[in-house]
Amino acid sequence: MTLKNTEIQKAEGKLGVLIPGLGAVSTTFIAGVMLIRKGLKLPKGSVAMMGKLRIGKGDDAQYVPIKDFVPLADLKDMEFGGWDIFEDNAYEAAIKSGVLQKQDLEPIKEELSSVKPWKAVFFNNYVKKLHGTWVKNAPSYWDLAQMIKEDILNFKKEKNISRMVMVWCASTEIYQEMKPGVHDTIENFEKALKESNKYIAPSMIYAYAALDLGIPFANGAPNLCNEIPALRQLAEKNKVPMGGRDFKTGQTLMKTIIAPGLKARMIGVDGWYSTNILGNRDGEVLDDPESFKTKEVSKLSVLDNIFQPDEYPALYDGYHHVVRINYYPPRGDNKESWDNIDIRGWLDYPMQIKVNFLCRDSILAAPVVLDLVLFFDLAQRASMYGIQEWLSFYWKSPMFEPGEQPIHDLFVQLMKLKNTLRWLMDVPPVTYLGAETYD
Q1: Mapping DSSP to helix (H, G, I), strand (E, B) and coil, where does residue 311 land?
Q2: DSSP per residue over 50-69, as a string?
Q3: Confidence tier at 437 by pLDDT (50, 70, 90)
Q4: Are strands 14-20 and 52-55 parallel, antiparallel or unpaired?
Q5: Which CATH number fits domain 14-247+362-424: 3.40.630.30, 3.40.50.2000, 3.40.50.720, 3.90.1150.10?
Q6: What pLDDT is recorded for position 1?
Q7: CA dist 285 to 3, 30, 136, 336, Å?
Q8: Which of 130, 187, 276, 392 could hold 398 in an S-S bridge, CB 3.0 to 4.6 Å?
């Protein structure tokens, strides 16, 4: 991330929120913002909207709402646009998703129905369980990228928008690794677009279109996407914030809460078995082994980073970490996860922890989308571009600079986020050396 070298620009005018994938997560987010700005609901789960940070020390310490401390965009200034492989408007998609009750959607039915998806870029070989009917056709991938740009620019003109942020909320694509000659430079990537190279995924085309237009891009799925060198270079070249990947919700959120506590107390772990059942479109997509592998790699990466088995072999060397996802349609968006954690304490005596988390996946993800929109817009106005490591708090597999290591400890991530906000406003960071209260 390149740090700001200018004053933060004011959040003036409308903020356009661009979303590939108008499914459960995105319609829950959009509906939530509409209900909140009407005063009908509270933005629970949003750190940007409900969180506070401490300014000063001792008797002079004050707890200031984050939304009052940094110049965030006003929710009333948000306009929503997006793409989907089905023609349903946001109201129809929200009803089909079954996340929010109809009684909550009725007060915003007209407004929500006005959000109609543009035709999506979709390749069935990248998401094999879905079969889109509302998709773009063009001679090449390069032409598809230009069509996405045209959608964006038309939206900007129609809605009189000043700034934009794109957040990928579409499905998990099949597992990929970086391909030299395709993903390594901007020139090779653009050449591959024109040749419709098979190693270019739809999410990469959206990311390219956004970054090339100078629009911040956040990846909410575990796809190989904006972390490829070509798109990193494009973000640096055009001075655009970017980040990802895979929203940290549900089971992984619990892991990043529990694991740091075990590590802090030097409690050993023999194994961590995780299984999930979910029945929404995400569950259907992940029923395909190739898409599941993309998600599995993202989920498995968390514990190794927290436990550091190489540094603490007596506690964590050889521990078993297993992740399973099961598609079960009756469950819908109400995901259920089970975790069995085999731990060892004093004198190597074994113990167990059992966690049964009955969560609503999109309810947990929606405030993450809101925070990322607000903070990525802030970063853009503060001239912070490239990878936004300070927002690792929101990702399962946070992007990081070459030569660095990602941080997965939720509490360290939160400290980094809040201290970055302090730095933006020229306020000293909190180190807890001699601190008397929590942040």
Answers
A1: coil
A2: H-EEEESSGGG-EEEEHHHH
A3: very low
A4: unpaired
A5: 3.40.50.720
A6: 60
A7: 38, 22, 21, 17
A8: 392
C-alpha 48/C-alpha 61 separation (Å) is 20
List, for residues 151-186, the tens digit of each pLDDT value: 999 999 999 999 999 999 999 999 999 999 999 999
| Element containing residue 293 per DSSP (H, E) | helix 289-307
Supply 378's token pair: 């802030």
SS (H, E, C) 202-250: HHHHHHHHHHHCCCCEEECCCCCCCCCHHHHHHHHHHCCEEEECCECCH
Distance CA 121, CA 148 (A): 8
- pTM score: 0.93
Closest CA to 83 of 183, 210, 273: 210
For range 257-277, the mean pLDDT: 96
In terms of DSSP bridges, do strands 78-84 and 118-119 run parallel, antiparallel, or are they unpaired?
A: parallel
82: nearest Cα among 121, 123, 115 = 115
The CATH number corresponding to 250-358 among 3.30.110.40, 1.10.10.10, 3.30.930.10, 3.30.360.10 equals 3.30.360.10
- For residue 279, what pLDDT is reported? 81
The angle formed by the CA atoms of residues 359, 307 and 436, to the nearest 5 degrees, is 80
Q: Which of 37-41, 59-63, 70-74, 392-396 has the lowest mean pLDDT?
A: 59-63
Q: Give bridge partners of residue 277 from the DSSP assignment.
A: 326, 336
Rounded to whole angstroms, how far apart are CA atoms 139 and 178?
A: 25
* Domain edges within the chain: 14-247+362-424, 250-358
Task: Grade residue 436 by pLDDT with cuts at 50, 70 and 90.
Answer: very low
Give Cα 332 distance to the centre of its chain: 21
